[in-house]
Amino acid sequence: MPKHVTDLMNIEGQLSTSELEVRDAVADFVDRRVRPNIGTWFDEAVLPTELLPEMAELGLFGMHLQGYGCAGKSATEYGIAMQEMEAGDSGLRTVVSVQGSLAMSAIYKNGSEEQKQTWLPRMAAGEVIGCFGLTEPTAGSDPSTMATRAVWRDGAWVLSGAKRWIGLASIAQVAIIWAQVSHDDARAAGALDESTVKEGVTETVRGFIVPTDSTGFTATPITQKLSMRASLQCDIELTDVELGPESLLTENPGLRGPFGCLNEARYGIAWGAMGAARDSVEAAIDYAGQRLQFDKPLSGYQLTQKKLADMTVELNKGQLLALQLGRAKDAGTLENHMISVAKLANCRAAIEICREARTIFGGNGITTDYSPLRHANNLESVRTYEGTDEVHTLILGHQLTGVPAFR
């Protein structure tokens, strides 16, 4: 029998021995270290940084990257790990995503060999925590309008601007900051590939590796959140931050650099959201079996069973979608629009599942003693970041019609 009562389709039977080992190792970590404390951390708005070394020891940081001290796991194994992490809490899954899918992937995909050797082994080991600065106060879904700029001045890059909703920024030792760079400045720095310059285009988005102890770098945690409370998101201010030429990420100028990282994060979200949904359904099943009303358990009522059945059907559909996505990624057949299908569908489904699960708990469901409403609140953020529903809908509309309708 499958490990989870919600696995009506025996999805577990499609997993390999190594995939099951990853699942069980991360699930054990969540059971031991997250579930006993997550209600308090969420209530007190605390990111439990003491867990970060243990996450690194599990090989979670950059686990799907090859070499440089990374675990080198498959895409499917990484997705399974994200499902188990988010069954604990979305905020803690986000830690893994920010570190590995965003900050480390930015260096892995866009950096020089020297940059990779310098940073990735220490980040995989958890000795260096990273963050990823793309979103700005006025540039969320449209990063092409970012106002942060880097100019070449007296043999150095000088960055100025602001970023918002940047995970882990106030505890990170290194930040990947994306900024507009004029072709003239890039040319002066010897960092412009003239073959990539398009007629009429005068600037390009470029990535920079920024030590967070640099003069002029300030990260401030965002407080009074109603979602992702056991997590850490920040505002970043960049005031004439001076960097050496080695700070510039050498490969993939333009938005394809950060978008490649965003797709890694979106992939993990498609799996993670189903972890929050599964935990909510299974918590509701357990509660319904124990809670007596009118002299019998809630689970004995038809209305309750309908809720549980409907939620579990949607859960299994989302899990199968995530598994198909992982298999395609491992096979090298994944196309970007597939990630949008799964991110859009699974976040949307997960929120509805968690909200419906909450109703089975009655008034008790609004406390941190039970997980569904915490998961639902967290998923409001997960649904928004790495592309809103609207953005992924337009990506799919473009795929279906061939007509871009973003503007």
Automatic annotation (TrEMBL):
Start and end residues of each Acyl-CoA dehydrogenase/oxidase C-terminal domain: 259-400
InterPro entries in alphabetical order: Acyl-CoA_Oxase/DH_mid-dom (IPR006091), Acyl-CoA_Oxase/DH_mid-dom_sf (IPR046373), AcylCo_DH-like_C (IPR036250), AcylCo_DH/oxidase_C (IPR009075), AcylCoA_DH/ox_N (IPR013786), AcylCoA_DH/ox_N_sf (IPR037069), AcylCoA_DH/oxidase_NM_dom_sf (IPR009100), Glutaryl-CoA_DH_mitochondrial (IPR052033)
Keyword Iron-sulfur appears in the UniProt entry: no
Top-level taxonomic group: Bacteria
Name of the protein in question: Acyl-CoA dehydrogenase family protein
Residue ranges occupied by any Acyl-CoA oxidase/dehydrogenase middle domain in the UniProt entry: 131-241
Cofactor list: FAD
Species this protein is from: Citricoccus muralis
Positions of the Acyl-CoA dehydrogenase/oxidase N-terminal domain: 19-127
